[in-house]
Write a structure and sequence with these properties.
It is a single chain. By secondary structure, the protein is mostly helical. It has eleven helices and no strands. Helix 2 crosses helix 6. It is elongated and about 55 Å long.
Length: about 150
């Protein structure tokens, strides 16, 4: 259990990165410039607003689906996390810790809390690369033609 607590920075950082990525996706989906297929970056709110502003805008909307997906998120990163001999108990612990974390944090504490660091950044990204190989990009599932500006950011 001590190893799990020690490596929570990877798990909690991974959850923060999920919030950040969902925020970026949501800001593009709700961007009037993207919806109108406009070309100029100056007409795209998702490019004008800071990440923190976008997190403050969409955090509550994103938190609920992220809470529901904690078991799936764990499956993506579990190979990068330490485990004891009881994998079922470890899974339950990580999922419980993850849900508790998401329920108690604010977007500001996630943004300023240094949950994603130089140490865990590449490990966290590897968890997302696994997920990318398994699923289609968000724009592909929506079926709406989007501006190249919205797809390349």
């Amino acid at each position: 259990f001590f190893a799990i607590m020690f490596f929570n920075d990877i798990w909690l950082g991974f959850l923060c990165e999920e919030i950040v990525r969902r925020t970026e996706s949501m800001s593009k989906l709700k961007c009037p410039g993207c919806e109108a297929n406009l070309k100029s970056p100056t007409l795209h709110l998702h490019l004008q607003n800071s990440l923190l502003d976008k997190m403050r805008t969409y955090f509550e909307e994103i938190r609920a689906p992220t809470l529901r997906s904690v078991p799936e998120l764990y499956e993506r990163i579990q190979g990068k996390l330490p485990h004891s001999e009881d994998l079922d108990q470890d899974k339950d612990s990580y999922i419980s810790i993850g849900r508790q974390f998401l329920m108690t944090q604010s977007c500001d504490s996630m943004y300023f809390g240094r949950w994603i660091t130089e140490f865990n950044d590449s490990i966290i990204d590897e968890g997302f690369q696994v997920a990318k190989k398994r699923s289609a990009p968000l724009q592909g599932r929506i079926g709406k033609k989007r501006s190249k500006k919205c797809n390349d950011d």
